[in-house]
Specification:
With 794 residues, the protein is mostly beta strands. 6% of the residues lie in helices and 52% in strands. A hairpin with a 4-residue loop joins strand 24 and strand 25. The N terminus is likely disordered.
Length: 794
Amino acid sequence: MRIYVLITTLLLTSGLFAQSSLKGQIKDEQGQPIYGANVFISDLQKGTTSDSNGNLLLTGINEGVWKVTFSMVGFQTVTKEITFAQNSTVEIVQVLKENEESLKEVVVSASRRSEYLSEIPASITVVNQKQLVDLSNSTTNINEILEFTVPGLAVSTGTFSNWGQTLRGRSLLVMIDGVPQSTPLRNGQLGIKSVSPNDISRVEVIKGATSIFGNGGNGGFINYITKKPNSSEKIEGTTNIWGTSNLAKTKDALGFGAYQSLRGKIDKFNYYVSGSYEETGNKYDADGKVILPTYGLDNTRIYTALAKFEYEISDRQKISIGGNLYNSLQDTPFIPVPGSFEVYNENGDYTLTPGYGIEGSIEGEEPTGSKLYNGNLKYDLNNIFDGTTDFTADVYYQKTKNIFFYSDKFENGGQSVINAEKYGLRPNFNTTLTPNESIEVSLTYGLDLLKDKTNQGLLDGRLWVPNIDMFSWAQYIQSTVKFNDEWVLKAGLRYDDMNLTIDDYNTLPYSPLGGGNFNPSVAVTGGEIGFDNLAFNAGVRYIKHQEFIPYVSYSQGFSIADLGSVLRSATADNIEDIQLEPAVTKNYEFGFLSKFNNFRLEAVGYYSVSNLGTGVTFDENINSFVPSKKPQNIYGGEIAIDYTAFDNKLQVGTSYSYVEGVTHNVGDENNLTYLGGDVISAPKLTAYVTWLPTNKISTSLRMTNLGDRSRFNPYLDANDNYTFRHTQFPVEGYTLLNWSMNYKLQENISVSLAVNNLLNEYYLPARSQWAAPLRTFTGTGEGTNAKLSVLYNF
């Protein structure tokens, strides 16, 4: 009997020790470790996940040949057969390629958790890192990059300002890693240009009313996701050097820039640091004339810096700290000569003469532009509450200083500046539950605490918009339920409570249309005001077949409609007598995604209503521009088509965006008026062809076409002359062609050449046309210009 026991024990022991293991690392194509990748042997029902360094260890594998699957959200799944000898360890380094199929792109902004794009019942555009690199070969102006890649976003203004670059006819919120950059309490319309494209990993644009991130997103939001400090080496980096020049005229038109980034890993410490410097030269239109310098991009110095540091406390915990700087200063040798227009008759026939720049200076004028700083401290804790929940908390700080151009519309002239400072705290939970095999429930919930202090004054000390001190808190919950991998139902609530303290102030004498007709100064007694709002969203998407993935959704947005503009044009002497109310937008939309082999189609239609307007109107009774108080109805559609052929060597695509909007007086819904160009963009058509003739060469031709929009009739002014009202001016379309080529000298060195406005088209950007009644913003677009750059990775 003892012999049998002994033999059995020996057999079991030998079987145990005969088991093998799999050891190694999982990386992406850039050599960065992938955290949380799944490794699974289905026949043995054994699996593990990679740690924060991408390392994996799977033990207890029986001798034999087994199929091992490596998978990760956002990457292509790999399955390979691996032979395990008796009592051995197989070592492997597995590289996962990013999933280029757009239906599998991962989005985090829509509900503050990772989700597949195809499973979100909303309209979302993701500009991935490859697109950013390709388009950055042509321009460092992120406004132009987004103009081309984001259907529904209005065309770039051709200036530093994004006033009029609306999203589906609504105001938008700009964020960097979820930290708001916009100044909604006094919207300076400069938020889109707030980070270097070289530091962006991807851009997520959520379109339509949304309150997931709070105040300011009535039309949606743009979230810049910056690069992470992921590396398997102690030091790696990227060097990018470029030069630019106008080709229509080259006098003092040369510009240059340099970017350097470093990243690495030392034990449990990860880092990413970068910096860039850029100088632009003179800018000329197609006729060789100096472009209007107001809000201009000429003679500008841009400094950027980004730093991120992470420390891995354990496999489940990490802490990170980071920040970024963006400083853009225009110091131009030119002064503006305003544009002009003349309307000849009641039919609206007109001529429009654009403004331009001439050499000169304004005494005491300081460089214009933006200075912003961001700081963020973040803590991550994973797999709590029996592994069902991840927790994240971050504290952030943001400071913005926007300096505007000199204006004679102030009494004795002056330059205005917006100062905004924000502090925020955001604890956030993500919980995933699986009641049974056919249902998966995900919950995202938490708090947003924000303190925002904003004012607008003149550089000489005069105050235009008083100190506005806001404290807001919001609680939210977003739920996603997936049924049988066929249906996704998403719904959520957010409650905002906002309390504002406004200092006593005196309004500034101001002449909004020029001509010296200054408003009288009014002494206004400040005080405290408050708003609250409950926003709801719901949507459903059918995801079973990639050939047709439809969705329908309803969402609400909430914002304070440029409170600063209201306060600076006040006629009442007490804050309690000024009519203040939040703007609430309701958005309805239907859309679908389709994927057939190498063909991709996306289409969406939407309709949104709001109790207040986006944009400002001129009130003749008080001689001032004020935010629109009229309800607005906006509707439109977008379509995007992409096709690849010849093993991805040929890529073609196109997109079309149409938006229209009307407004009416309260209680008079049948008397409709078209909205101005500051809100509604003319139709936009884009198209591209990318060809890779060899493994070393790629070339692209891109087209952007702006259609016409002529909705308005002229009227007789006080002098019996025909004219158009503010922003209600016809827009004539134009077409621009941009070309670029990239050549890979070595695996890690490439050189690129790009020519923008290839045909030297003479045109006026849309804003230069619809803002013509203001006379100070009507400038031409840049003529043919080029960029030559060299990229080195090590």
